[in-house]
């Protein structure tokens, strides 16, 4: 059983590595991008140094976790309010909401989360 788990983990990590290479080149791989979580603003949902797989969507809803670009920085937070094209997001661990953003600044929503540290400690 451990060998199967290890094989699956290696395959997932290889896919993440390939997607991450494409993402770092400014492009996506089949519409997907990978980002590393750099802060604790989304704890406990997303751990620091975990990876998230992002997919562009035409529709975003309250409670979706999205990655958006603001001032050349990528931020991954949860949508808490939607007003037409204006979205307000907030980190789960933050006390205050982010400044409003336009929907077109959203890179995509989180469809998969991989906490590598948990797999290594397995």
Overall description:
- The chain is an alpha+beta fold.
- It has two helices and seven strands, in the order H-E-E-E-E-E-E-E-H.
- A hairpin with a 2-residue loop joins strand 4 and strand 5.
- The longest helix has 23 residues, at 2-24.
- The model has no long low-confidence stretch (mean pLDDT 83).
List descriptors.
122 residues, alpha+beta
Structural class: alpha+beta
Report the radius of gyration as a whole number of Å. 15 Å
Which spans of ≥5 residues are poorly predicted at pLDDT below 50? Answer: none
Tally the beta strands.
7
Order of helices and strands: HEEEEEEEH
Backbone shape: globular
Helices, by number, come to: 2
List the helices and strands and how they pair.
Blueprint: H1 2-24, E1 32-36, E2 51-55, E3 65-70, E4 73-83, E5 86-90, E6 101-102, E7 106-114, H2 116-120
Antiparallel strand pairs: 1-2, 2-7, 3-4, 3-7, 4-5, 5-6
Quick recap:
This protein has 122 residues and is α+β, with helices and mostly antiparallel strands.
